[in-house]
Design goal:
two-stranded antiparallel sheet; mainly alpha; 2% strand; Tet_transcr_reg_TetR-rel_C_sf; Tetracycline Repressor, domain 2; 67% helix; 9 helices; DNA-binding
Length: 206
């Protein structure tokens, strides 16, 4: 993501640094230097480091929410009718989003490791509403005793972990989202995992 405005450029740089180093490992000075600006200019456009982090996370959330809403419309085009194929389409769009915007999963993974622990409201404000959207959409197609929320969390844990760490190839090198072959393998694995966890009809049984 790139922006032309001063504020947008600062947010782009801050997103990249917060994703790479975490909130706690990134200073306002580092952000200003990477953006080619002084700290006063950064403060003028965005405010302090906390303000900057909140703006970065808000922008990331809006991107993720827009992508999820579009994916839900595509996956479940017929209102009120969830299908197994729709669930798998939703899964694919989520993997696509994470591959196209690796900085967003990285921001959340830092939070999993207690980064920015003093900014405690983001999960309730951003994560819970999106999780509710997914579980409400998927629940009609699965048995009542299936824990849809835990399956959704499993997809998030796996996708974020694969995006950040990848897998080792035969020579010990890491392969991840930027490797088309490994991404295809990962996507196929997630299809099998979610199909089994939600007890969906298999793709071969369509």
């Amino acid at each position: 993501m790139t922006s032309d405005s001063g504020r947008g450029r600062i947010l782009d740089v801050a997103t990249r640094l917060f994703a790479a180093l975490g909130y706690d490992g990134t200073s306002t000075r580092l952000i200003a230097e990477a953006a080619g600006l002084n700290i006063a200019t950064v403060a003028y456009h965005v405010g302090g480091k906390r303000d900057l982090y909140l703006a970065v996370m808000e922008r990331a959330h809006q991107q993720e929410r827009a992508a999820l809403e579009a994916a839900l419309r595509e996956a479940f085009a017929e209102p009120g009718r969830a299908t197994a194929d729709g669930v798998r389409r939703l899964l694919d769009r989520y993997v696509d989003f994470c591959a196209e915007h690796p900085e967003i999963p990285a921001l959340w993974m830092h939070r999993w490791l207690s980064d920015a622990a003093d900014v405690a409201h983001l999960e309730n404000s951003y994560v819970r509403p999106l999780m509710r959207m997914v579980t409400e959409a998927v629940s009609p197609v699965v048995d009542d005793d299936v824990d849809v929320e835990y399956v959704a969390w499993t997809v998030i844990w796996c996708t974020h972990g694969f995006g950040r760490g990848g897998v080792l190839d035969g020579e010990g090198r890491r392969r991840g989202m930027d490797d088309p072959r490994e991404l295809a393998r990962f996507r196929a694995h997630l299809h099998r995992l979610v199909t089994a966890a939600l007890r969906l009809p298999t793709e071969d049984a369509r």
